[in-house]
Amino acid sequence: MKHVFFAVVLGLFFSVNLIQAQSFSNVQLKTLERQTVQSGDVIQNDEGPVLLCFWATWCKPCIKELNAYNELYPDWEEETGVKIILISTDNARSMHRVAPFVNGKGWEFDVYIDANSDLKRAMNVVNIPHTFLLNSEGEVVWQHTSYMEGDEAEVYEQIQAITVNNE
Amino acid sequence: MIKITVKVLPLLMMCASLQLRAQEGRVTGNFQGDFQYYISDTTINAVSPDERLLMNSYANFTYHKGNFSAGLRYEGYLNTLAGFPGEVCRNDGVGIPHRWARFSKNGLEITAGNFYEQFGNGLSLRTYEEKNLGIDNSLDGVRVKYNPVFGLNITGLVGKQRYYFDYGPGIVRGFDAEIGINDVIKPLMDKMLRIRLGGSFVSKYQDDNDPVYVLPENVATTAARLNVNYKLFNLETEYAYKINDPSQDNNYIYKPGQAFLATSTYSQSGLGILLSTKWVDNMSFRSDRNAVLTDLNINLLPEITKNHVYTLAAYYPYATQPAGEWGIQAEIFYKFKRKTTLGGTYGTQIALNYARVHNIDKTQVSDTIPLNAMGTDGYKTQFFSVGEELYFEDINVEVSKKWTKKFKSVLTYQHLTLDNNILLQSEYHGMIKAHIGIADLTYKLNSDYSISTELQGMFTDQDKGNWALGLIEINAPNVFFTIMDNWNYGNPEKDQRIHYFTLGMGYVKGGSRIQLSYGKQRQGVMCVGGVCRMVPASNGVMLSMSSTF
């Protein structure tokens, strides 16, 4: 019985890679000033795509990833109109660190706090960092989990691809 | 409890592999599976269970259509991985312990089934899941959220807490309201001074079947919070009060509980400052008065110490003492700008952090009753009293710098002091003092390949003595390889100067990740988001898979 179970689980794992297209879900988030907002109202970009990044102040690869994006963001923004939005999954222990942390790093992104992981759960994120690319209709067109040095090149290719398609 | 047999699983798989979607709706979800094959290792007292191979797995499926959504989570523990709570057969098996349906329209959201919720900072209520710790204290019941106008949010809920594949004995009822004064009063909308008020009331009911004591069957917690924001300055406070709640946690005393949390921040581009303080007095709050460890917590008392990410920096983590503690934390983040002496070509980031935690002052309720005696009022204390006993102190500095296009570093120094009689991180009795140094170096070979190394050292005369850790990680497109040695070279017992070698590799594609590792895991405390569990020593092969779809 155990072998049957493992076979099923493995089958499930590899089959899910075929599945694409996940639309954006609407839940409550907090701004850095603690205002409650609906994710659907703030995660949008009239100018082009949105890069939605799930992270936390205690997540080492997340910080490496966002430092890399921050260096490239002015060029990306100018060339594709992309908006980078961070969703902090810091809980009550560390959510107060988010504003000084982000400003202390000099990051220029929009940041929202998902203190009880409601959006993380709604977007089916398992581990952070996890990045979604949304087109101008708010549909998920690409996603990526974890961060390895140099991943930003692939991210930019994906942003360019949907920007070109939209044009 | 709803249980299914493995015969149902092929159906679930089919749902995914056939990309099941209703004509107008859609199905999304995720999967996570962790498998470990255990090998006995007498050098580290690692025991192989009878099953040899253990597994924890989860699969979420959510159906969305318009304003309606519904979901379920399959969970399988065959049998539960070593070290997870409930491993003594309590959690073994498969089932669908999490299922829910939700409808939302015009600011009204109704959820029936399992849900997670947090009021304010969580001092009165926080239900959440943390799979890495085996925690899921979701409520199963009904929740209504209403947002009649922008700036006003109301939540009401009733439910029973999940207890592995069963329920806790108590019933939890809660109400929370939050109002943004500037959002609802139009003349104040454009003012720089912004005020937000919130309040919550949470009550639990549990039968009193104690043969000796008369116990309160309804226990209420009330909390109020205030947030003030002015330009770059932010202040956030919350105070919670709980009526007497004799429980296993407090040795069945009849004293009410209190908790206070305040955090202020100031930040502008390139600079962030945080100051926070916390005071806790007898504030454990569970839906079963006899529960222990991580079971059936209704609230969360967050630590205000830094959550370290490097292995040796996180070796002695802090965990909140619900029986009583006072703490402070100060942190400064600063970025030296590019093209300055300290900033160099790319800028330099620095973070300074200091945290200190003490006991609170407790005095006897009378000369004849010892402190915290069962069945009494326990002790007396003054609000915000600070005791002389130091529980934990952490001072650390971290400097991050990119030197060239290809090379960057993060250097960390930390000095820790902790009372292990209170924090119980190991069998050692007494205070532990440790110096920790870490160098995290990354070199980018070309656009596709990079190599990262971590060199860590912890130096202490107490507990298990000095540790050294070396890690090399090689990254290639979609693939990574790691080799790590965590060496307890300074253990006072020479035969315990053990190398904990680990080899690992992984593959990442889109939203899916698979990782295989082999090696020894030391016994210790694992913490995520401020909650901790003991991890037993182990040796073996670990396979982890996850996917989002």
**Poorly predicted tracts of residues of chain A:** 4-22
N-to-C terminal Cα separation of chain B, in Å? 27 Å
What oligomerization state is this entry in?
heterodimer
Number of domains of chain A: 1
Please give the share of residues in helix of chain A: 40-55%
> Which CATH architecture of chain A?
3-Layer(aba) Sandwich
Output the strand order for the largest sheet of chain A.
1-8-7-4-5-6
Q: Could you tell me the radius of gyration of chain B in angstroms?
A: 25 Å
Overall number of strands of chain A: 8
Which structural category do the helix and sheet elements of chain B fall into?
A: mainly beta
Give me the secondary-structure category of chain A: alpha/beta
CATH superfamily of chain A: Glutaredoxin
Mean pLDDT of chain A: 85
- Poorly predicted regions of chain B are 1-22
What does this molecule look like?
The complex is a heterodimer of chains A (167) and B (549). Chain A has a single domain, classed as Glutaredoxin. Chain A has helices at 2-16, 39-42, 60-80, 98-105, 118-122, 151-166; strands at residues 22-23, 28-30, 36-38, 50-55, 83-88, 110-113, 130-134, 139-145. In chain A, helix 4 links the parallel strand 5 and strand 6 (110-113). In chain A, the strands form two sheets. In chain A, strands 1-8-7-4-5-6 form a six-stranded mixed beta sheet, covered by helices on one side. Chain A has 167 residues and is an alpha/beta fold. Chain A is globular. Chain B has three helices and 30 strands. In chain B, the strands form four sheets. Chain B has a 24-stranded antiparallel barrel. A two-stranded antiparallel sheet of chain B has the order 6-7. In chain B, strands 8-9 form a two-stranded antiparallel sheet. The interface between A and B is large, with 70 and 103 residues.
Layout of SSEs?
The complex is a heterodimer of chains A (167) and B (549).
Chain A: H1 2-16, E1 22-23, E2 28-30, E3 36-38, H2 39-42, E4 50-55, H3 60-80, E5 83-88, H4 98-105, E6 110-113, H5 118-122, E7 130-134, E8 139-145, H6 151-166
Parallel strand pairs in A: 4-5, 5-6
Antiparallel strand pairs in A: 1-8, 2-3, 4-7, 7-8
Helix pairs in contact in A: 3-6
Chain B: H1 9-17, E1 26-38, E2 53-65, E3 68-77, E4 93-105, E5 108-115, E6 118-119, E7 125-126, E8 129-130, E9 135-136, E10 139-146, E11 152-163, E12 166-180, H2 181-184, E13 193-205, E14 218-230, E15 233-242, E16 257-268, E17 271-281, E18 324-336, E19 348-358, E20 390-402, E21 407-419, H3 420-423, E22 431-444, E23 450-459, E24 467-476, E25 479-487, E26 499-509, E27 512-521, E28 524-528, E29 531-535, E30 538-548
Antiparallel strand pairs in B: 1-2, 1-30, 2-3, 3-4, 4-5, 5-10, 6-7, 8-9, 10-11, 11-12, 12-13, 13-14, 14-15, 15-16, 16-17, 17-18, 18-19, 19-20, 20-21, 21-22, 22-23, 23-24, 24-25, 25-26, 26-27, 27-30, 28-29
